[in-house]
Amino acid sequence: MGRKWNNIKDKKASKDANTSRIYAKFGVEIYVAAKKGEPDPEANQALKFVLERAKTYNVPKHIIDRAIDKAKGNSDETFNELRYEGFGPNGSMVIVDALTNNVNRTAPEVRSAFGKNGGNMGVSGSVAYMFDSTAVIGVEGKNEEEVLELLMEADVDVRDIIEEDESVIVYADPDKFHEVQEAFKNAGVTEFTVAELTMLPQNEVTLEGDALVKFEKLIDVLEDLDDVQQVYHNVDLGE
Questions:
Q1: What are the BP-aspect GO terms (predicted)?
Q2: The domain containing residue 221 runs over which residues?
Q3: Helices (H) and strands (E) in the chain, counts
Q4: Rg of the chain over all Cα atoms, to the nearest angstrom
C-alpha cells in the first residue's frame, strides 16, 4: 500500500502535540458527531468512530467529555463539512477535509496555502477520483496469519493485511470498519495502533529536491489550519 501508517500517525501526533492542535481538532469533530445524533457512542456510530480514532491519538478524557457536554447543551454552533481538492508541485494531488463554522474564512485560507506553496486549487472531483476511501485498522501482538484467521472466522472480507514494524495493518472497505474492529474485540484485542477512515491514492508519485521541499511545506501549512481535519495526498514521502 506504500504507507507506513504508524510512522505517519506518530509524526503527526508529535508535531501537533506541541500546540495541542490535534486535541482541538478532535474536540470539534467529536462535537459535530455528537450533535448530529445521540451523544451516546453506542447509539451513534459516527461518534463511536471518532472516539475510537481519538483513543489512538491519546486525546485526553476531559477534551472528549467537554465536546460531548457541549453537544448535550444549548450550543447552536454549527459546522459545515467541506472537501477541497488541488494539485501540488509536479503533478502531486491533495485532498483537504475541513470542518468549519465560517466557510468564508476556510476557503480563502486553503486556496492561499496552495497558491503560496507551489500548488493550485482544483474543482470538485478533479482529484478525488484517483483515491479510494479505505478503512485502516492496526493492532499489535498478532501476526499476519493470526489476523487473517480471526477475520475469516468472523466472516469479514478485507482488501489487504500487511505486517508493518511491530503491527499488523488491515485495509478494508469503509463499511467494514466496525466489523473489523468487532472481530478483533471478540478475539480479545481492545487497543488499536491505527483506526482511520482515509483516502488512499491509487498511484503514488515521488518528488525530489525543491519540489519535495515545497510539497512538504504545503502539507504542513494545510495541516496547521484550524479548520482542516485531514489532508490526503499521493506522494511517497518514504515514511
A1: regulation of DNA-templated transcription
A2: 80-129+203-233
A3: 8, 8
A4: 18
At which residue does the C-alpha cell 477520483 appear? 129
At 65-110, the pLDDT tens digits run 999 999 998 788 899 999 999 999 998 999 999 999 999 999 999 9
Residue 59: how many CB atoms within 10 A of its CB?
23
Question: Angle CA(23)–CA(28)–CA(34) in degrees, nearest 5?
Answer: 120
How confident is the model at residue 15, as a pLDDT?
53
DSSP string, 12-44: HHHHHHTTTHHHHHHHHHHHHHHHHS-S-TTT-
- Asked whether residue 177 is assigned to any structural domain, the reply reads yes
Kindly report the backbone phi and psi dihedral angles of residue 141, in degrees, each rounded to the nearest multiple of 5, phi listed first. Answer: 90, 0
**Overall pTM > 0.85:** yes
What is the Cα–Cα distance from 224 to 218, expressed in whole angstroms? Answer: 10
Question: Hey, what's the cell of 162?
Answer: 500487511
Number of domains, the chain:
3
